[in-house]
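--- STAGE predict ---
source: upstream dedup step, 1 unique chain passed
mode: sequence only
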Amino acid sequence: MSLLALEGLQVSYGGIRAVKGIDLHVERGELVCLIGANGAGKTTTLRAITGLVRAAGGRIVYDGGDIAALRVHEIARRGLALVPEGRGVFAQLTIEENLAMGAYARSDRAGVAADVERAFALFPRLKERRRQTAGTLSGGEQQMLAISRALMSRPKLLLLDEPSMGLAPLMVERIFEVVRGIAAEGVTMLLVEQNARLALEVSHRGYVLEGGLVAFSGEARSLLGDARIREAYLGE
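--- STAGE serialize ---
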């Protein structure tokens, strides 16, 4: 059974149908990417999965149950974590306090402390600035913090929304090194990413959205070699 399965998912904003009935699945331990042009419905899909917007139709089956009607905090408590577009860090809180917010539902103090040290091992720059407020960090540092905060909940499914957006190339490279490492540890991930080549290079499988519908799907290597994908999304 898939950890996540979208079955005919539809999402509307007012009278506009942004997602028009998509089917998608993510197996346990997989890294799956969702790519497509701006406005294709990628972020809307993630927002529907996490309960930030309500599905207008279809099912969102996560860990064996339909979560489409659940509230955001109920979904989060089931082990689903989102790193949102724009990072969404708590600007007035320190790095340490942001990480603590990621572990708010946990009571295992030793485990939480160990995960803080793991975050600092993944991103040593955060350790150097651990008592600095998040609002004073660079965009790349905030992205490091957003990913680390999500991992503090020990999610069964990690959703990443545009992690490379607005970052310098060297920082993008570092972020995706960590994404690869997290995937290698067996964390299940669904990645939305504007850099289609980079997304496909780190993923097991991919889906291409066009106009709120799945236009292509398959193994990431196959999509990378598809002439239609290369022309439309890889600039070749």
